[in-house]
Amino acid sequence: MLNADLSDSPSWSHHFEGPAGAPPDPSVWTHEVGAGGWGCAQHQEYTATTDNACLSGGDGGLRVTARAHDTSQPGSRVTSARLVTRHRFTVRHGRIAARLRMPTGAGLWSAFWMLGENIDTVGWPACGEIDVVEHVSSDPTAAHGTLHGPGYSGLSGGIGHRHDHGTDLAEDFHTYSVDWTPGSVTWMLDGTAYNTLSAADVPGPWPFEQPFYLLLNLAVGGAWPGLETDAPTLPAVLQARWIRVWNLSDH
C-alpha cells in the first residue's frame, strides 16, 4: 500500500463547488448518454441534464439523481447520469478516493470506477476496468471492488471481493478508495484495506499499467440488482462530496 494519508495534500482533487443546481464542471466531466441496457438489461436512459446531475451548493457536493417519468404508466421512462473524465483527466498508479453516500431504494446500482484510456482502440475489456466501488441496493451493507480484463470480465467473470461493512452504506458518507501500484490493486473502505489483487491473481492479461479515466454513475435495474418491485423507488440520489487522487510519484 502507498504511504499516503487521506489528510495529505492530493495531487488532484475535485470538490464539486458551485451554486446549487449548476451542472458539474464541464472542464472535468462529460456525460455519456443513451439507453439500450448498457450491456446487462439496465433500465435507465442516461442524460446530460441537471435534472439528473447537478451541484448541491452550500459546502459542495454533487447529486446524481435517477428519476421516473410518467409513473402512472407501467414501464415508465427512467433517467439518470453517467459522468466521465474521458479526454479531460486520467491517472496512472496512485491512490484514488471518493467520498460518497449511496442511494436507497429498490433496484439501484451505484459505481465509482475507471477505464483504460485506450478503450477506443482496443475496446472493452481489453482496456481494463477497475471498479473502486460498486453498491447495489439489494445488498445494502456491502461494497464490491472488482477488476475486469481480457478473460475475466462481466458480472460472472470479474475478479473481486464483496466487503460487508455491517451497516447500510446509504446511511452516511464513506470514503471508497484504491491503492493502485505496478502489479497490484488494493481496495479500502474508510481507509481500511479489505482486498488486494495482483497480476498473479487474474486468469488473463494485466492491462493496468496505463492511464485510466474516472466514471461515476447511478444505474437502475439490470442483471445484478434487479428490481424488488414492479417499479423502482425513485427519485433516488447518489451523493458525492469529493474525489481525490494522490499520484504514486508523490509518495
TrEMBL record:
<dbReference type="InterPro" id="IPR050546">
    <property type="entry name" value="Glycosyl_Hydrlase_16"/>
</dbReference>
<dbReference type="Pfam" id="PF00722">
    <property type="entry name" value="Glyco_hydro_16"/>
</dbReference>
<dbReference type="InterPro" id="IPR013320">
    <property type="entry name" value="ConA-like_dom_sf"/>
</dbReference>
<feature type="compositionally biased region" description="Polar residues">
    <location>
        <begin position="1"/>
        <end position="12"/>
    </location>
</feature>
<protein>
    <submittedName>
        <fullName>Glycosyl hydrolases family 16</fullName>
    </submittedName>
</protein>
<feature type="region of interest" description="Disordered">
    <location>
        <begin position="1"/>
        <end position="28"/>
    </location>
</feature>
<feature type="domain" description="GH16">
    <location>
        <begin position="1"/>
        <end position="251"/>
    </location>
</feature>
<keyword id="KW-0378">Hydrolase</keyword>
<dbReference type="InterPro" id="IPR000757">
    <property type="entry name" value="Beta-glucanase-like"/>
</dbReference>
<dbReference type="GO" id="GO:0004553">
    <property type="term" value="F:hydrolase activity, hydrolyzing O-glycosyl compounds"/>
</dbReference>
<dbReference type="GO" id="GO:0005975">
    <property type="term" value="P:carbohydrate metabolic process"/>
</dbReference>
